[in-house]
Every structure is written in structure tokens, then in C-alpha cells.
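Lecture notes, unit on protein representations.

Consider one protein chain, 420 amino acids long.
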Amino acid sequence: MRLFALPSAIPFVLAVALMAAGILANTGHAQQLAPARIAAVVNDTIISTSDINHRVGLLLYGNEAAGNDPAVVDRARQQVLRRLIDETLVRQAAEDDGISVPDAQVDGALSILAAQNETDLTDLEQDLARRGIPIRVLREQTAATLRLQVMAQRRGRGQIRVSDAEVAEEIARQQDGAGETEFELAEFVISIEPGMTEADARAEAERAVASIRAGERFGEVATRVASGLGETDGRLGWLLQRDIDPEVVDQVLALPTGSISEPIRTTRGFAVVGLIGKRVRGQADPEATRLQLSQLVIPAERIESVGRLRSEIRSCADIEAFARQVGNRQSGPAGQFALRDLQPAIRARVEDLPLNQLSEPLRQGPALILVMVCAREEAAPPPLPESDEVRGQLEAARVDRIAQRLLQDLRLGAFIDLRL
């Protein structure tokens, strides 16, 4: 199971844009729009049902099954409404403070998003338009997160600065526990919102788990179920056992790498945890070992020839020569892969396989596949944290905390009239 496809370090300014991950997939939800009505009034600003419909279409892109599930769509509408309220409050406060976000900055964030989806900004805009989603919807999302970040930086000037002593303390903390197992985790929580029962929240968490196990990436689901402005795709990073939430730690310890938990009842709601990887702190991550593979593909009815082929073919060059000789285009170089990215059946055959030796055969329909490891590159131990990197991490965390406090203050001081 692939939990994530995005890099492990996701910039705060792109947190909102990640709601469009998988944006190039097909869904018809955005086309099914009802006539616009007033959904909410935030101070003196109206949020319409049309605004909500566009955002729901964007939020559920790449998940046609979710778009056809009334319960998922209804929860998505509530999540989108809460988010639009937050965005409206931030936009109003930014205007009062004279804060604006240049179009070029929004374009830059969207260009990174487009590149992550192996396209460019022009094609992204055209793809959205074909599915009835104006590009302004994605621009407004991105601008909202950028505004919140700028406001948090301004209002927290005296609180954001990190001292050299704090950097040194954090470096020592990260180096602490050398030799202990640490876990790379991701998590999302289905909270029990007003109007929901505990059974409703559990059912929603179970649907989310089913979506991931059916092939949707953990990060996409985590982003979809997130309610608040600035929430990300659920990555928690590398944690020692003592740093894991006590309410979920027992389930984490029982998880195989690359798997997810069942919904876990916690004080925050129903948590779903994904275990991305494990390693020993201060040592190389064995899951990051890279293997250069070649494959030999033969018809399944030739299984009696496997022993002879395994004795005659003693190198990856031999596989290529064999493929040329018999005109077998399916055989030959397969590429380079991290151990964690291999399918379980392939991994079981090659993880401890000596170089230049064919594996035991794997049956794939009418064919047998024998895999050879041409080269193995062990991962290097993680580098010691640099002071500037740690300072940036601490400052970004403080900006995030200030941003969430700012949102809470804006909500408390606002007039919000819900019409749905």
C-alpha cells in the first residue's frame, strides 16, 4: 500500500493546495450543481451554495466513488463550509490590516502543485475548466493560506524568533534516543461535529479506511477529511515510541510497515494512523535501500525450464542477451526501486537475493516472472540536523501555532449566520 506520493516535507503555503491532489482524475461531481442560495453570512460577506459546490467538486476530485456517496458528499459540504468561513474571516482581517498576496506568489504555489501532478499551470487551468471548476476556486484556496501565514508572521513577530539555545536544545532532542526504533507516521481524525453521532463519525472513518485500502492515498484522504484552514495531509514525521500519542501507540506498534489502522476511538474523535516506515534512529533506513532490477518473463507452461534458466543466466547482461535471442520484449531492465516501494510478492523474492541470481518464479496470469538484482545501494545514515534547518522547522511550527490561535480569535469575534 502506497500511503503517500508527495515528498515528506510539504511547505505550509501549499497545505491548502494539496486538497487538489489527484486533480487530474475524472469525476462528474462538479457538473452536478444546484441553483445558488445563501449558505452563510460571515460578518457582512455572503457564502453561497455555488461556492460550496465548486469546492466540494475540487475536494472530491479523483474519487468518483466518494462523489457518489451521499454521506461523504454531505460531510464534505460541511467541511467546505467551515473552511470557507475561515477563509472569509482571514480575508476580512487581511483587508483591515492592509495585507495582500501578490498574484505571482499564488502562481508560484500553483505551479509547484501542477508540477507535483506532472503538468503545468496552463494545462491545470484547462483541465479544471473542462470539469466545471473555475481556476479562481483553487487560487482563492491558495491565497487564503498565504494570507493566514503572512498575518501570523506579522502578529507573532516577537514570538517567532528562535534563539541559538533553543536550536541547540532541539538538535540534542533529535539526537536523543540513538539506537531506538522510530516510526514515520501519518494520522487523520474524524471528529464528532455538532449534529453528528458517534456512530456517524465511526462510519465516516470506516469509509475513509476502505477508500485507502481500495487504492486512494492516505494523504489525499487526510486532506479531504480535514476541516480547518491550514490543515495538511496528516504527516506527523519520525517519532520515537515515547513521543507517540498514548491513545494510539499500542495500535501503531502492532502495524506492519505500509499499513493503516482501523478507526481508533480517542478523546479527539476517531483516529486513523498510517505507518509509513520504521528505522533505528541514527542508523540507515533499510526501507530506503535501492535495488536495480531486471526481469525474465517466460510462459507459465515452461515452468520445467526454470531450473535450467536459473543455472545458465548469471547476470543482468545475460537476461538482456536471452531476451534479444528469443525476441522477448517483456524481459530486460525493470528499473531502480526503493525496497519500501516494491510489491510484497516481489520484495519477498529480492530483499535478501544475492546479486546476479534469478529469484524463484512469480506467477502473473499466463506468465512466470523471475527477478534479478543487478545492483544494491544501501541507504546512508540520516545526516545530523543542520542548525539552519532546525531553526526553520521551529519557526514554521510557531507560525502554524500562531495561525491557529489567530483563527480561533477571528471565529470568536465574528458574526456568523448559518443558513443551511
